[in-house]
């Protein structure tokens, strides 16, 4: 629902008057005027500067009770100071007396007299204070995500209630009435009104939320409309449901800024010159030492690129000369302009203090893309660094960094690959294969190393990007670049913070991408936020807002780091599996594993096995020790490899089973799980590899064991089986994968 031209005129006049009077907050009656102009119900009201302005005609439109409020931008908590009273609407002299007495009472609390603009006389709105009948609807402007609509219990204890009982519901505008009604019907309070036969209350709430959504979005930096003002905060606390079924605002507060005073800019995702980071024609490495015995990040990167077999790599050292990298002698050029061919990508590894002169001095060989590995000079604040860099940056050059490890992109038949992660291959094994399908975007280079090490044997990463401080290339630029690529099935993201407006663009982009985006965000607590800010100068936003953004955009937000690793593994290794539903079955060989699995199903539902499957299971149960009536079959430690596999295959063949988990405690004597025996062709490990390839349903496996069974696990992982070290992790990862693919909110 758009704001009408007539409404905008009224609203702009209200903002103009307040701004000209030196205010960036609105008085309550001004908020009423705005709400009324956009179609919301407000009480009858009159504003007077003093008791002398009060007339009998003014009071005629009110009932027998009125609310009298003092109006002042200098005074908060007016009610506690005697600045809000409910009084009888007697003759004019009596109400005037109340106003004068209220002024004296309020001023008695101050040594320095605050400015009092006047008094607001408001219609008294009778209503019940039962939960649900008072609702706070507001908007706050988040530096990263723009306007965010708040919907929670209203009244004086709204903040307390949100903190200790039920957190505020947050939504990103704009949304129309139908979407607002859908959101309201997801709230817990909807059950109360449905039970008592008053679903129309939900419709009233939805109408108010949609109208405030339109207003907040229109007057924000997220809107493409040009407006004179930005609404920074709006609180209607509360809206109330009256006994005659009105949904009416009885209190209001708003803060705003003039656009020329507001410096936030929301830039669109930009993929211009992103391709050369991953598939460049010509790479220049700046800062390659000539001395092979001297540790140098520049030499490490040069060797990584050399080992990829690239023939279009060139190295820069201000002293010139030659050096040997691997088995080849390379010319060291004194500047990038000396390189005789064009280079699309430059990797800057020299000292941070020389970065400005590097850009300033390039004249002829200007790369399209630059990776800035170093951090900022020690004597410079980040804002000053950005300002200085912008002065010398050639037009259209894209930059990843500073303070990053840069990029890895695996080679394939069309691309020789790129690796600037500056860790030698003996210490950091990073390989790809034709099944590599995940891109990992990370603000932390350390997190990149952690995940590469953790998944080195799985070869799941097609690309890794450590983007650091995001001087230029943002998270949204990278997501927009990778999302349409056919060989990328999943986008994993580790983020410490979004820049101004970047969060909003992330939301707008992510909700239209049909590939899984799996996120872990640090800075959930105050301590975490401070640590993130000190690490990359990140603009860390409110985590509750971020959770709401992810939920509405269909993004998979993971709260703990181990589950994050587990989900990346599941989504990568199960990417080509088809999910038809949430019916699940399992095969375990320890009773406690079956119990834990049942407790961790989440959105999964136990399948009802078909009669045909039950008959197969009975035939397999020739020693009669197994309960085949359950959907989680405990085959006991007595079951050997071949029989174990037959139970698994019998269940996965059942059309009633959409997904499956297998749990193995490999210590049983009858299982060939120890070294040497686990390599037998019909061992459980090798059989599971074949079953996972054969069937198009998602299967996760857990192996609850120690170091003696690493080879047993490795056989399965090298065969692209999603293996976990405990049943809980296996089932939770399967639940997340299935829930995403069946449209269930996590």
From TrEMBL:
<feature type="domain" description="ATP-grasp">
    <location>
        <begin position="32"/>
        <end position="91"/>
    </location>
</feature>
<dbReference type="InterPro" id="IPR016102">
    <property type="entry name" value="Succinyl-CoA_synth-like"/>
</dbReference>
<dbReference type="GO" id="GO:0016874">
    <property type="term" value="F:ligase activity"/>
</dbReference>
<dbReference type="InterPro" id="IPR036291">
    <property type="entry name" value="NAD(P)-bd_dom_sf"/>
</dbReference>
<dbReference type="InterPro" id="IPR013815">
    <property type="entry name" value="ATP_grasp_subdomain_1"/>
</dbReference>
<dbReference type="Pfam" id="PF13380">
    <property type="entry name" value="CoA_binding_2"/>
</dbReference>
<protein>
    <submittedName>
        <fullName>Acetate--CoA ligase family protein</fullName>
    </submittedName>
</protein>
<keyword id="KW-0067">ATP-binding</keyword>
<dbReference type="GO" id="GO:0046872">
    <property type="term" value="F:metal ion binding"/>
</dbReference>
<dbReference type="InterPro" id="IPR032875">
    <property type="entry name" value="Succ_CoA_lig_flav_dom"/>
</dbReference>
<dbReference type="Pfam" id="PF13607">
    <property type="entry name" value="Succ_CoA_lig"/>
</dbReference>
<keyword id="KW-0547">Nucleotide-binding</keyword>
<dbReference type="InterPro" id="IPR003781">
    <property type="entry name" value="CoA-bd"/>
</dbReference>
<dbReference type="GO" id="GO:0005524">
    <property type="term" value="F:ATP binding"/>
</dbReference>
<dbReference type="InterPro" id="IPR051538">
    <property type="entry name" value="Acyl-CoA_Synth/Transferase"/>
</dbReference>
<keyword id="KW-0436">Ligase</keyword>
<dbReference type="Pfam" id="PF13549">
    <property type="entry name" value="ATP-grasp_5"/>
</dbReference>
<dbReference type="InterPro" id="IPR011761">
    <property type="entry name" value="ATP-grasp"/>
</dbReference>
């Amino acid at each position: 629902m758009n704001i009408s031209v007539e409404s905008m005129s009224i609203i702009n006049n209200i903002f103009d008057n307040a701004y000209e009077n030196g205010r960036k907050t609105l008085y309550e009656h001004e908020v009423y005027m705005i709400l009324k102009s956009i179609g919301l119900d407000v009480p009858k009201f009159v504003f007077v500067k003093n008791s002398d302005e009060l007339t009998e005609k003014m009071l005629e439109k009110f009932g027998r009770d009125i609310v009298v409020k003092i109006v002042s931008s200098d005074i908060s908590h007016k009610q506690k100071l005697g600045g809000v009273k409910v009084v009888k609407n007697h003759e004019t002299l009596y109400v005037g007396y109340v106003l004068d007495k209220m002024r004296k009472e309020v001023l008695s609390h101050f040594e320095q007299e605050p400015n009092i603009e006047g008094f607001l006389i408001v219609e008294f709105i009778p209503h019940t204070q039962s939960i649900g009948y008072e609702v706070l609807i507001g908007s706050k402007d988040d530096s990263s995500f723009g306007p965010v609509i708040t919907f929670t219990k209203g009244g004086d204890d709204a903040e307390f209630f949100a903190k200790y009982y039920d957190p505020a519901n947050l939504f990103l505008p704009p949304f129309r009435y139908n979407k607002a009604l859908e959101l309201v019907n997801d709230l817990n309070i909807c059950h109360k009104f449905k039970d008592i036969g008053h679903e129309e209350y939900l419709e009233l709430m939805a109408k108010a939320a949609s109208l405030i959504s339109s207003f907040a979005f229109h007057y924000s930096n997220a809107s493409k409309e040009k407006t004179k003002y930005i609404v920074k905060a709006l609180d209607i606390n509360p809206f109330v449901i009256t006994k005659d079924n009105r949904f009416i605002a009885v209190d209001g507060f708003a803060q705003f800024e003039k656009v020329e005073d507001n410096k936030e800019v929301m830039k669109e995702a930009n993929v211009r010159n992103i391709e050369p980071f991953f598939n460049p024609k010509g790479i220049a490495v700046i800062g390659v030492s000539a001395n092979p015995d001297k540790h140098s990040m520049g030499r490490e990167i040069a060797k990584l690129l050399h080992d990829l077999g690239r023939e279009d790599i060139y190295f820069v050292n201000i002293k010139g000369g030659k050096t040997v990298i691997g088995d080849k002698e390379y010319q060291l050029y004194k500047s990038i302009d000396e390189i005789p061919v064009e280079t699309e990508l430059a990797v800057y590894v020299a000292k941070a203090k020389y970065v400005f002169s590097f850009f300033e001095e390039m004249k002829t060989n200007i790369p399209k893309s630059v990776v800035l590995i170093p951090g900022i000079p020690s004597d410079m604040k980040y804002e000053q660094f950005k300002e200085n860099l912008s002065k010398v940056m050639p037009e259209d050059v894209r930059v990843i960094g500073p303070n990053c490890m840069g990029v890895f992109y695996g080679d394939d038949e069309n691309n020789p690959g790129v690796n600037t992660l500056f860790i030698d291959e003996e210490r950091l094994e990073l390989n790809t294969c034709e099944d590599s399908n995940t891109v990992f975007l990370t603000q932390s280079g350390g997190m990149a190393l952690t995940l590469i090490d953790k998944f080195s044997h799985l070869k799941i990463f097609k690309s890794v990007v450590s983007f650091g401080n995001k001087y230029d290339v943002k998270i949204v630029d990278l997501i927009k670049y990778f999302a349409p690529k056919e060989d990328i099935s999943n986008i994993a993201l580790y983020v410490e913070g979004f820049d101004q407006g970047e969060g909003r663009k992330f939301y707008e982009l992510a909700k239209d991408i049909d590939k899984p985006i799996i996120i872990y965000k640090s800075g959930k607590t105050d301590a975490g936020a401070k640590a993130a800010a000190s690490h990359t100068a990140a603009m860390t936003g409110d985590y509750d807002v971020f959770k709401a953004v992810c939920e509405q955009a269909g993004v998979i937000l993971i709260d703990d780091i181990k589950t994050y690793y587990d989900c990346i593994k599941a989504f990568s290794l199960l990417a080509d599996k088809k999910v038809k539903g949430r019916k699940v079955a399992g095969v375990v060989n320890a009773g406690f594993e079956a119990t834990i699995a049942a407790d961790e199903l989440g959105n999964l539902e136990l399948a009802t096995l078909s009669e045909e499957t039950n008959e197969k299971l009975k035939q397999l149960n020739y020693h009669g020790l197994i309960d085949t009536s359950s959907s989680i079959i405990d085959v006991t430690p007595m079951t050997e490899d071949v029989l174990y596999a037959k139970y698994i295959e019998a269940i996965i063949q059942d059309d009633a089973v959409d997904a499956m988990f297998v749990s193995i405690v490999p210590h049983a004597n009858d299982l060939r799980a120890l070294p040497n025996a686990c390599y037998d062709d019909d061992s459980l490990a090798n059989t599971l590899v074949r079953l996972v390839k054969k069937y198009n349903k998602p299967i996760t496996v857990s192996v609850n064991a120690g170091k003696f069974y690493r080879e047993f696990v490795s056989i399965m992982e090298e065969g692209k089986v999603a293996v976990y070290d405990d049943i809980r992790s296996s089932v939770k990862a399967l639940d997340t994968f299935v829930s995403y693919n069946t449209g269930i909110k996590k």
